[in-house]
């Protein structure tokens, strides 16, 4: 291990030279993604005379993309000026981004396979603000990256600097068998729909290019097969196998080599098959915790836990801190730093109102059921009434939901246990709440029932159909806890 | 008591539901009406254009359909505005702000001052005509966690904003 001198961060730094390859690779990928249908046309319709123009167009776009990414690479600088991290970008469109060091929440280091090849990394700087996507260094030598992180985390007062220290205890590390277990127990129906959506969009793209050829080919080949039971059965098995294989791949991408270790002030998560992701989760940034299992995983006691952190956009999957939990010992250590599960101490227990199922049937079941049925009546009159099955499905699933739903409350936190087939548990400390909403429909007003929405910086939690008295007490108690708490929610 | 295990007496906690709410300024209804006029005007132009480019709408049953749709939409919008106006009310407490709105589903939102990240006051052209303003309160919460209170007197909005700023500044030493 060479002990390299850290560079002077106050001098403007460029990205690593070998990073140029990565930036070119990125440019090529975006280019190809944007215009691949045109490329296919060029490759397959050489006979057409017009393709000459197309080729010129493609070449021009390609050159523009190439030049602009080269210029961007050449003019990119980052440095530290007084108490700010500064990024300077662009030639024509000059852009200077200044991030106060004290606003830096976390520094992520990522490596794709290309980064690994050249021993460089991508550094993402996570701030309390919103435009954090801008604060990314695409290519920097790996040892420089970790020195930069150490420097940035030392220079701010955040508690999170402790997580970067090497004294960490591994809590969870997944073996290949565990990853396979996660893959086999994944929700294959969901995977199937993802594949379906993907195939449809591919089909559409191909149809745009080749016109009716694909359609005719499909029709010809399908007319050769007579739909006997055995054909249908083998088709079903084929779909199932494909779904399972894709589920396995998805889980491998997410959880291969997954490692979670804990330090004094936070967790460190490392995972990835093709690219290594590192994610730091400071305890103070966790707003609430939830853990979920589908029906199969619940039977095997496998849960996927999520730390809902402040300022992580809800829909950004890559930044989510997801942790597969395959045994109970590790589980307790994950939850305890935030707040231990509420069942373990003194608590009160509450349910949602029994009218929930009937109201759901009335509000969601009936309008949609009737709409589907009447739509189906136009196209397939004989089968239309089968859409009315929607009504009992909504009713009984809502009934099961109401029967299982539990709300546990103690002095410091609340916990929600819910699910129809699978289970989801949410655990929230009172003082992490940002805003409280109490919603009532006219029917709920008449019957003294209310919905409560608790907004946090990591997403919101909804509690439906509880007694108005309980809702008011939750509201008043939460306000009391927020307003009297000396603890910082971040 | 519903919270059996609480170390504090729930009955002693301030009750947000018992606070008397102040309705927003009456003049704001006029602002809403001006907005209604503007939207109706735009809609009228749009339907005129539709009649102009789609020939079937120029003959007998066609234009009846367009006129009926136009009237239905603007009347519905007018009623919706009236209802929405009546439902909006707010209250300031020592440590939080309460805002109520919602035409069918009544929504009460409460935002503690020590969770407000920043606040601002804005005035649109119609609002300025009547000396009204909108108060925006931003929390760190994700979507839907911010509060926008329309139809305040501009001076009221400013003083509430300053009051909250003072409150959050007072809190600062405790949280740092």
Key phrases:
heterodimer, A: 490 residues, alpha+beta, PH-domain like, 7-stranded antiparallel sheet, 20 strands, globular, B: 176 residues, 2 domains, 4-stranded antiparallel sheet, 3-stranded antiparallel sheet, 47% helix
Which helices and strands appear, and what pairs or packs with what?
The complex is a heterodimer of chains A (490) and B (176).
Chain A: H1 19-44, H2 51-75, E1 77-81, E2 84-89, E3 95-100, E4 104-111, H3 113-118, E5 120-127, E6 136-141, H4 142-154, E7 169-173, H5 176-184, H6 188-210, H7 213-224, H8 229-255, E8 259-262, E9 266-271, E10 276-282, E11 286-293, H9 295-300, E12 303-309, E13 321-325, H10 328-335, E14 348-350, H11 356-379, H12 390-404, E15 406-409, E16 413-418, E17 423-429, E18 433-440, H13 442-446, E19 449-456, E20 459-467, H14 468-484
Antiparallel strand pairs in A: 1-2, 2-3, 4-5, 4-10, 5-6, 7-8, 8-9, 9-10, 11-12, 11-17, 12-13, 14-15, 15-16, 16-17, 18-19, 19-20
Chain B: E1 22-23, H1 27-53, H2 60-87, E2 89-92, E3 96-101, E4 106-112, E5 116-122, H3 125-129, E6 132-139, E7 147-153, H4 154-175
Antiparallel strand pairs in B: 1-2, 2-3, 3-4, 5-6, 6-7
Helix pairs in contact in B: 1-2
């Amino acid at each position: 291990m060479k002990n390299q001198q850290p560079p002077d961060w106050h001098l403007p730094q460029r990205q690593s030279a070998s990073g140029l390859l990565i930036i070119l690779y990125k440019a090529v990928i975006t280019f190809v993604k944007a215009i691949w249908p045109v490329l296919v046309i060029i490759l397959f319709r050489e006979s057409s005379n017009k393709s000459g123009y197309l080729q010129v167009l493609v070449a021009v776009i390609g050159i523009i993309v190439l030049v602009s990414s080269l210029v961007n690479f050449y003019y990119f600088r980052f440095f530290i000026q007084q108490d700010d991290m500064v990024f300077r970008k662009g030639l024509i469109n000059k852009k200077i981004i200044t991030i106060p060091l004290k606003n830096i929440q976390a520094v992520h280091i990522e490596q794709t396979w290309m980064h690994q090849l050249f021993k460089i990394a991508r550094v993402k700087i996570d701030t309390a603000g919103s435009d954090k996507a801008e604060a990314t260094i695409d290519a920097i030598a790996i040892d420089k990256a970790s020195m930069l992180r150490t420097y940035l985390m030392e220079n701010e007062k955040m508690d999170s600097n402790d997580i970067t220290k090497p004294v960490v205890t591994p809590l969870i590390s997944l073996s290949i068998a565990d990853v396979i277990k996660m893959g086999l127990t994944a929700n294959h129906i969901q995977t199937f729909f993802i594949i379906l959506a993907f195939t449809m969009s591919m089909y559409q793209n191909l149809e745009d290019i080749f016109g009716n050829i694909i359609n005719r080919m499909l029709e010809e080949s399908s007319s050769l097969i007579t739909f006997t039971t055995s054909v249908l059965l083998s088709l079903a098995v084929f779909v199932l196998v494909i779904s399972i294989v894709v589920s396995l791949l998805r889980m491998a991408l997410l959880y291969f080599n997954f490692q979670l270790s804990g330090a004094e002030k936070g967790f460190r998560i490392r995972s990835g098959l093709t690219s290594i992701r590192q994610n730091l989760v400071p305890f103070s940034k966790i707003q609430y915790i939830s853990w979920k299992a589908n029906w199969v995983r619940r039977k095997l006691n496998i849960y996927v836990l999520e730390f809902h952190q402040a300022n992580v956009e809800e829909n950004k999957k890559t930044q989510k801190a997801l942790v597969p939990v395959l045994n109970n010992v590790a589980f307790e250590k994950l939850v305890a730093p935030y707040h231990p599960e509420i069942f373990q101490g003194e608590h009160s227990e509450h349910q949602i109102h029994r009218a929930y199922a009937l109201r759901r049937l009335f509000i969601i079941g009936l309008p949609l059921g009737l709409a589907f049925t009447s739509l189906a009546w136009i196209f397939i009159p004989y089968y239309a009434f089968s859409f009315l099955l929607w009504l009992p499905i909504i009713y009984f699933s809502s009934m099961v939901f109401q029967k299982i739903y539990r709300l546990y409350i103690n002095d410091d936190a609340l916990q929600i246990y819910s699910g129809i087939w699978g289970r989801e548990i949410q655990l929230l400390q009172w003082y992490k709440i940002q805003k409280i909403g109490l919603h009532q429909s006219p029917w709920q007003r008449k019957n003294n029932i209310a919905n409560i929405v608790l907004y946090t910086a990591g997403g919101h939690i909804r509690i439906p159909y509880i007694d108005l008295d309980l809702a008011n007490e939750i509201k008043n108690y939460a306000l009391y806890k927020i307003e009297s708490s000396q603890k910082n929610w971040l | 008591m519903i919270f059996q295990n609480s170390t504090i007496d729930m009955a002693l906690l301030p009750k947000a539901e018992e606070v008397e709410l102040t309705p927003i300024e009456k003049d704001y209804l006029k602002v809403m009406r001006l907005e209604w006029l503007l939207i109706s005007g735009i809609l009228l132009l749009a339907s005129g254009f539709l009649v102009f480019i789609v020939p079937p709408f120029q003959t007998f049953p066609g234009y009846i359909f367009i006129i009926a749709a136009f009237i239905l939409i603007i009347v519905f919008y007018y009623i919706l505005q009236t209802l929405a106006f009546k439902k909006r009310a707010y209250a300031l407490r020592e440590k939080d702000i309460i805002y109520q709105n919602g035409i069918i589903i009544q929504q009460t939102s409460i935002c503690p001052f020590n969770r407000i990240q920043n606040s601002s006051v804005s005035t649109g052209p119609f609002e300025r005509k009547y000396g009204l303003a909108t108060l925006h309160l931003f929390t760190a919460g994700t979507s839907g966690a911010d509060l926008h209170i329309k139809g305040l007197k501009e001076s009221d909005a400013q003083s509430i904003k300053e009051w909250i700023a003072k409150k959050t500044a007072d809190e600062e030493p405790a949280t740092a």
